[in-house]
């Protein structure tokens, strides 16, 4: 009888011990996964401090024989992009690119206005409540800057209800173009209501189309300079991403200081080349750009250091416009002499069936794309007690 009790007692103790070991092991392997892919003591330690040489040719790899493509030619001669009379830059491009009329329509439109980058905030009729500035003492540690489009109400609401909901040290902002598109429904009244209700929409008065996404990056950086200069990190992310905020925050807090100061972190593409099939997405004509893309963090979601904002704006004034926002950011970082850091927890081309399984999400930092419905479901299950992995 007594012995039986002893056995039970021992069994219980052993179970507890096993559980402890298991918990420690899982949290440790989770931590290991969150380690940066690169090594800290790499022999080719890249610069930690941004610099911007007078002549960017060497930085941007324009050292060999100069290709005939327009971007390459322009970059070699460009001082600073014109800030006034920006339309002239596009008109000149259109006249100097011999096969400009064969370019896809949206690329043509992009080039015609690509040097125009100053757009006012969009004001709802009758005035709106502007987005509040950061106060000096509670600048966010991590700004969640979500690129959205006026019509993506469901995606925004899913983010607000889940990973974008106020976690300590974060602040959520959505970046949008004008709610008055071309040929679409008039979303002004809906967006006005949303803006007044949530106060988290930064809207600018430009056409919200894929080739205008770089404007959101640049206008945000300008806005931050005036309204939130002390933010530590900025997460640039799409509205259909799912972000594991606690894991991301923990990763950022444990970064070596030299990394943290000049951070450009995400899923990094190092040897991407322009796609050359006319008619397909991301097509780039040979007469526009020759060469490889710079190493860049995929636009699905990446993190940069807030203190780089003014540097990036300076770089952008000196880098010839490029139609894809994430590649363009890669060019700007390269111009500054900074390299992207790859992290294996960023999955920006996530197979949709995997989203159905919250277990695969554990240990990841950012996944894209995820539908609003899956975002809600993942959020509910990720930390639910019923989740057995
Ligand atoms: C930059 O340097 C390259 C040679 O490396 C030169 O051909 C080019 O003219 C220079 N550009 C400017 C704007 O000075
Ligand atoms: C970007 O927005 C500006 C301002 O609304 C517009 O003139 C331009 O055509 C847009 N770009 C594209 C590629 O549609």
From TrEMBL:
Record's keyword annotation contains Methyltransferase: no
Keyword match Transmembrane helix: yes
Enzyme Commission code: 2.4.1.-
Highest taxon above the source species: Eukaryota
Stretches that traverse the bilayer: none
Keywords linked to the UniProt accession: Glycoprotein, Glycosyltransferase, Golgi apparatus, Membrane, Signal, Signal-anchor, Transferase, Transmembrane, Transmembrane helix
Lipid bilayer topology: Single-pass type II membrane protein
GO CC annotations, alphabetized: Golgi membrane
Signal peptide: 1-23
Pfam families in UniProt: Galactosyl_T (PF01762)
GO MF term (any one): protein N-acetylglucosaminyltransferase activity
Pathway, per record: Protein modification; protein glycosylation
Compartments reported by the entry: Golgi apparatus membrane
Annotated function: Beta-1,3-N-acetylglucosaminyltransferase that plays a role in the elongation of specific branch structures of multiantennary N-glycans. Has strong activity towards tetraantennary N-glycans and 2,6 triantennary glycans.
Record text on subunit structure and interactions: Interacts with B3GNT2; this interaction greatly increases B3GNT2 catalytic activity, independently of B3GNT8 enzymatic activity.
Family membership noted in the UniProt record: Belongs to the glycosyltransferase 31 family.
Protein name, per record: Hexosyltransferase
Protein's organism: Cricetulus griseus
Gene this chain is encoded by: B3gnt8
